Amino acid sequence: MLKRLLIFSTLVLFATVTVVASDRDDDVSRTQKAAQIFSEITNNPDQRIPRDLVQRANCIAIIPGDVKFASIYGGNFGRGLATCHTGHGWSAPVFLAVDGGTGVGYQTGGFPTALVMLFMNAQASQVLVTDKFTVGGNATVAAGPVGQRIAPGAGQIVNADILTYSRAKGVFAGVNLEGTVVQADRSGDHAMYGDNADRHEILNGDAAIPASAQPLLDEIATYDRAPQ
């Protein structure tokens, strides 16, 4: 019995380290997947984030693929990244880890394959430099609208501090991710930028943009600048 308990404890510890730790290859893979996700959702006119919301957003977080049920934690896990609007474009990304909780799966009708969050103002974006935050904890959050334009009557929704989306079973739609726990993946930041990585500097646009992140930032910038 003791032997089995030790084996189980070792497996749990290994799984925990696997979930938390990141390396540069993982960072590159995340940025590539995020670029693909953003391209797919913005090229579908009926299921995309309205362009004017992207233009107004202060920051965007994308958690692509591999958001799955992790039985040892009892929630949905994924790792992604965030980039912010600066005076000269979009910043290099910082890295995130997400525990959506089982409620995310229930809301979307199946475990999501991607999550997207728009941080609509500077105050909401400040949570991205913290070690851990809960969506909706200190800011208003709402399921974001989709389509080519914001529908009439959606004013109250788009005035939320954070707008959230999920893609599940091929359908991209706004979903209220209030209660989702997001934590800084500092191992990802260090793997990409070195041990002295500073999330404030990165999101303020003071860090050099990694070559692997440029396609994602180009996708966002192209959508951002395109006419309505």
Your description of this structure?
The chain is an alpha+beta fold and 228 residues long. It has one domain (22-225). The protein has nine helices and eleven strands. The chain has helices at 2-20, 24-42, 51-56, 102-108, 122-125, 155-158, 186-193, 199-203, 214-225, and strands spanning 59-64, 68-70, 75-86, 89-90, 94-99, 114-119, 132-134, 141-143, 162-168, 171-174, 181-184. Strands 1, 2, 3, 4, 5, 6, 7, 8, 9, 10 and 11 form an eleven-stranded mixed β-sheet that branches. The chain is globular and about 45 Å long. 39% of the residues are buried.
The major β-sheet equals:
11 strands, mixed
Determine the mean pLDDT.
80
Span from first to last CA?
Answer: 65 Å
Query: Uncertain segments of ≥5 residues (pLDDT<50)?
Result: 1-19, 67-74
Tally of helical segments? 9
Shape: globular
Helix residue percentage: 25-40%
Write a short abstract of this structure:
By secondary structure, the chain is an alpha+beta fold. The protein has helices spanning 2-20, 24-42, 51-56, 102-108, 122-125, 155-158, 186-193, 199-203, 214-225; strands at residues 59-64, 68-70, 75-86, 89-90, 94-99, 114-119, 132-134, 141-143, 162-168, 171-174, 181-184. The chain has one domain (22-225).
